[in-house]
Amino acid sequence: MTLTVYMPALGAMGAALAARLVAAGAQVVSDLDARGADTRQRAAAAGVVHAPEYAMTESDIVLSVAPPDQAMPIAERFAALARSPRGDTVFADMNAISPQLAVRIGEKIEQAGARFADGGIIGLPPDGVRPDPALYVSGPAAPALSKLGEYGLRICLLDAPAGAASALKLSYAGITKGLIGIGAAMMLAATRAGVADALSAELAASQPRLLESFGRSIPDMMPKAARWVSEMHEIARFVGDDRADAEVYSALAAFYEHIGREHAQAGPEVESLLAFLSSGAPHNERDAG
After folding, report:
1. Do 45 and 63 lie in a common domain?
2. Strand, helix or coil at 153?
3. Residue 266 domain boundaries
4. Residue 44, pLDDT above cutoff 50
5. In this predicted model, what pLDDT tens digit does every residue of 163-187 receive, in sequence order?
6. Using N-to-C axis directions, what is the helix angle for 246-264 and 268-279, rounded to 10°?
7. Tally of structural domains, the chain
8. Rounded (to 5) percent helix, strand, coil in the chain
């Protein structure tokens, strides 16, 4: 039988995963009514077929890949529709949410009569060139997602309860996206202080790999910054609201919100960051030689 996967959201990552599944012979469906033109275009390119939302309760797997603030609303819609669930449908929450929220979502899904798998995606959307993203999954129903490995996805099973995959995802994102935010903030601070060129030269001399990484990651971050805000809040909750280190991620949420506005308005700080990274290019070439 053909594997049927329902995807409630089709952003860049979701659409890329859908395309991989379809290419391997799975049927991927989603409710495309009232979706924007961009989403419809991504769906068409990926080979996603329109199906009403109630189809999610009739699918083999529901793969929820959405912004963190949409994770619970999607689960609630599934639970509301699952009045007579098949019983073997696996609802996989692959969003960047705190383990605490993942557990609450799992309880809601299981109360609706379906099975739940906690998940987290580490990596960029698959494109056939760079390494595929890893889809970490945990919880009692996680082994059922191994089937997706037969359809082109890289599934990494954790022998751990629901919440573990989310904890791993947020730990990783806290390091990588935290470092990007701190780097961008200090580049802007150095620019305001008039020492941008000196900092760029020093990074090129003593931290060339870090500067090279920032040269890719910071421009890539800017159009995504607004979407990273809720993820930073989830990381803060994961760390623990009563811990001082959680404040780091609350502050990064505010910083990414600011950068998101700057990018939308083509603000001066976007230009400052691009200018800083551009000025580092000659230093990188010198050191590489």
Report:
1. yes
2. coil
3. 167-288
4. yes
5. 999 999 999 999 999 999 999 999 9
6. 100
7. 2
8. 60, 10, 25
